[in-house]
Amino acid sequence: MGAHGHETLLKDPAIEEWVWMRNNTHRYFKFTRRTAPALVTFGLVVPALTFYFASATQDKVDLKPMVKKSWAEAYAEKKSE
């Protein structure tokens, strides 16, 4: 930016069109044989696998900290030395 803020921003029409199309994909989307596998994969398979692995590992991982002392106790002990 310059001292006075009088710069002009050049816009590429191709980039502007791409951004507009990307932001408005819902207007042109159609359920076809080409889009069906992606929809099934990301709409059903991925969530199902995520749920399966989350439920299979639930309560099997111990997330407690490994230290016996709290951070405040360790800090106080270190400071007193």
Backbone CA Rg: 27 Å
- The helix content is 40-55%
Report the major sheet. Answer: none
Order of helices and strands: HHH
Q: Span from first to last CA?
A: 54 Å
Oligomer: single chain
Q: What's the total count of β strands?
A: 0
Strand content: under 5%
Count of alpha/pi helices: 3
Taking pLDDT < 50 over at least 5 consecutive residues as the criterion, the unreliable ranges are none
Mean of the pLDDT scores? 85
Silhouette:
flat
Structural class computed from helices and strand pairing: mainly alpha
Provide a descriptive summary of the structure in words.
This protein has 81 residues and is mainly α. The protein has a domain at 11-58. The chain has helices at residues 13-23, 36-56, 71-80. The longest helix has 21 residues, at 36-56.
Please describe the structure with a list of short key phrases separated by commas or semicolons.
mitochondrion; 81 residues; flat; transmembrane; NADH dehydrogenase [ubiquinone] 1 beta subcomplex subunit 4; 0% strand
Secondary structure layout plus pairing:
Layout: H1 13-23, H2 36-56, H3 71-80
Protein name: NADH dehydrogenase [ubiquinone] 1 beta subcomplex subunit 4
InterPro entries: NADH_UbQ_OxRdtase_NDUFB4_su
Family: Belongs to the complex I NDUFB4 subunit family.
Write a concise synopsis of the structure shown.
Helices cover 52% and strands 0% of the residues. With 81 residues, it is mainly α. The model has no long low-confidence stretch (mean pLDDT 85).
